[in-house]
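Per reviewer request, we include the raw input and output of the structure prediction for the construct analysed in the revised manuscript.
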Amino acid sequence: MPTARESLLDAASAALERESWAEVRMVRVAAGAGVSRQTLYNEFGDKAGLAEALLRRRLDAFVRALEVRLHRASRASRDELLELLGEWIVRAARSDRLVHATLTGCRCDGLPVPPDGAATLVGRVRDRAVEALERRGNAPIGDPGAARRCETAVRLAVSQLVAPGAAVPRRS
């Protein structure tokens, strides 16, 4: 059985799928979770605290899903892994408004975005990709070139989110 905190985050996430963050009301989030408003305020303090917790949960899930994706690509070469990384980031961010808003800094629809969100998330994603390269022997441990290549792949993916270009056919 989910905790009150998890139920509240689920309800806030569901509300955000239906409306802008500015339209999300604490009373409706509490009702959606089946708890009192007081429980909501005790758990998160205020709407900003709820937004921070919701963002943290969604971004952590994004990074965990990335780790799974990188692990599944165990036979990929370094270049293939970097290509998969970029493609996955674009697809995942296009399917999650909070991740997209965090990576691009877009405060569209009044979405909550942490002030250093893009830099922090890009750093986390870069670090996971570097670890994946090192684990499979595609880069020596501590190789600054690996970090630079991963950062470039992540930033290219973010640029595709900000300014989408024409579709490029996949290589065979």
